[in-house]
Amino acid sequence: MSQNKPAYKRILLKLSGESLLGEHPYGIDLETTKSIALQIKEIHDLNVQIAIMIGGGNIFRGIRGTEVGMDRAWADYMGLLATIINGIALQDALEREGVFTRHISAVEVKAVAEPFIRRRVIRHLEKGRVVIFSAGIGSPYFTTDTAAALRALEIKAEVILKATKVDGVYSADPLKDKTAKKYRSIKYMDVIKKGLKVMDTTAISLCKDNNLPILVFSLMKKENIKKAVLGQKVGTRVY
Ligand code: UDP
Q1: Would you state the pLDDT for residue 2?
Q2: How far is the CA of 156 from the centre of ligand 1 (A)?
Q3: 13 contacts: CB under 8 Å, gap ≥ 6
Q4: I need a labelling partner for 20 at 20 to 30 A (CA). Which of 13, 49, 87, 167 fits?
């Protein structure tokens, strides 16, 4: 078997807003964005169909607004809009590397992104365009993790690749607890029962009910997205 044979035909990559931070405490680091774009190009060159759900935590999270008394729905809409800004940055970075993309926003912003039309999105993927989803599911009280699970199901992705700062799922926070153990694989139900911070419960439940595996791994190591796509050992598999 070729060493470069992907294990999946169609994937959904969940990128948190934080993945665009680089060394900054806030906003978008364009060098980091470029480096992520290059990693995405590498798997695109393997003919993998790629959809990305981009988060917004590097700019604004609804919960931050509520902490100072903001109305939750408005605060979440601000978070939603933050994801669109990230989507534009990622689209620009990918297209500068020669990768054709389509930016699909769940709230209408005609000037910068297309609306979500399921069949059209699938067509984009079949034509080899990288699809960037922003604005989550378009409604407050949700996260981009839940949106990732929903869209992955709608486009029939075979797996969610959840790229984070940590190299998998641990029994406790490895930065605070030296005895924390990393799981190679873990069942959806155990993630929920143990309250492990992988994705929010709504996202995990959606994946569980529809048997959609999640691969959690670190984006800090540059070859990890490719390793994950090639089916090599990386991070933790939630199944
Ligand atoms: N958000 C929302 N509905 C969605 C997705 C996101 O209201 O369907 C808002 C919510 O306020 C969230 C913010 O957008 O805090 C940014 O998304 P998220 O926190 O999931 O980003 P990430 O942690 O992946 O950077």
Answers
A1: 61
A2: 22
A3: 40, 50, 51, 52, 53, 160, 161, 163, 225
A4: 49
Low-confidence residues of the chain, pLDDT below 50? Answer: 1
Tell me which H or E stretch contains 227. helix 224-229
State the pLDDT at residue 4.
86
Q: Give the span between the Cα atoms of 121 and 114, in whole angstroms.
A: 10
Give residue 165 CA to ligand 1 midpoint distance, Å.
17
What is the domain partition of the chain in residue ranges? 10-238
DSSP assignment of 160-174? EEEEESSSSEESS-T
**Per DSSP, what are the bridge partners of residue 237?**
185, 215
pLDDT in tens, 5-38: 999 999 999 999 999 999 999 999 999 999 999 9
| Predicted local confidence at residue 35, as pLDDT | 97
pLDDT at position 162: 98
Closest approach atom of ligand 1 to CA 80: 14
Q: Are 150 and 121 in contact (CB under 8 A)?
A: no
> Does the C-beta of 147 come closer than 6 Å to ligand 1?
yes
Q: Would you tell me how many other CB atoms lie within 10 Å of the CB of residue 170?
A: 19
CA distances from 238 to 27, 65, 157 (A): 30, 31, 15
- What letter represents residue 145's amino acid? D
- From ligand 1's centre to the CA of 133, what distance in Å? 12
Whether domain 10-238 has CATH 3.40.1160.10: yes
Q: What is the pTM of this model?
A: 0.97
134 lines ligand 1 (CB under 6 A): no
